[in-house]
Amino acid sequence: MSLAPRAVLVHRRTEYEELLARHGTHGQAAFFLAARGRSADEVRERHERTRRALAAVAGAVPLTWRQTRVERADLDRFLFGPEDVVVVVGQDGLVANTAKYLAGQPVVGIDADPGRNAGVLVRHRPGDARRLLPYAAGPGAAADELTMVAAATDDGQRLLALNEIYVGPPGHQTARYTLDAPAGGGEDGAPEAQASSGVLAGTGTGATGWLRSLWEQRSSGLALPGPAEPRLAWFVREAWPSPTTGTSRVEGLVGPGQGLRLTVESDRLVAFGDGVESDALDLTWGQTVRLTVADTRLRLVG
């Protein structure tokens, strides 16, 4: 017999819970915020809205299903199953944090605090869960297949991200590397030694965030990809010209079957996805990392 679907409710600690963990009691947290011109009541009200949203979604899970919860900090230790329906209750960024651990399971994004989130990935309200969960588990469920970006090193390390992957120094030092990128015709041009603040490669979903800020900052003429397009856009941050480093290849696109390759020429660089620095690949002098369109896609329902 096949297993009944399991609803996996993904959430994160609220600001209020983090304040209590740091200060111990509501009174101490309120005193800390009041001294800075902020109200603990406002933070607690957002906490209560999130808790109500989580409770509403949990109550909407069909009685014949199994269900469990996982906090964002525990995602890297949680084992998702093929029969799971993943319900992310929170912000858009929480969907991105979850995506890298999935393998095609349907994802339903629930906005826990409408009006504060853009709603690009958490597209639904808690009251929609009763209808959406059975639909998501069905064979004909329509879902957006969102492109992801992958980083793979020459020693077998691998990293996935929904928005973007950053390769660069872990602090404020200069990143030194040789960049080998697809030219306009799809054939590799000449590799270029570079010194910069790092390289960012991202998807159409990421083109609404960090990637877009670089695109706008330099008034780039690149056509950024859409969320479902199998293309990546990449940018070099603050490339520095010198007798040994160039600045002629600082942006571009990566299509299917192509890759952006960096050979490390610093003592240490890191690669991390979607802003999660705690889950990074360590890169040392001489190593190569390749950024490509990932084979895995995020199946976002609705």
Task: Please provide a written account of the structure.
The chain has 302 residues and is α+β, with helices and mostly antiparallel strands. The chain contains six helices and 16 strands. It has helices at 15-23, 26-34, 40-59, 92-99, 129-137, 210-217, and strands at residues 6-11, 66-71, 84-90, 106-111, 143-153, 158-161, 164-168, 175-180, 192-196, 199-202, 232-236, 251-254, 260-264, 268-273, 280-284, 288-301. Strands 1, 2, 3, 4, 5, 6, 8, 9, 13 and 16 form a ten-stranded mixed sheet that branches. A six-stranded antiparallel sheet has the order 12-11-10-7-14-15, covered by helices on one side. β14 and β15 (280-284) form a beta hairpin. α1 (15-23) crosses α2 (26-34). The longest helix has 20 residues, at 40-59. The protein is globular and about 65 Å long. The mean pLDDT is 92.
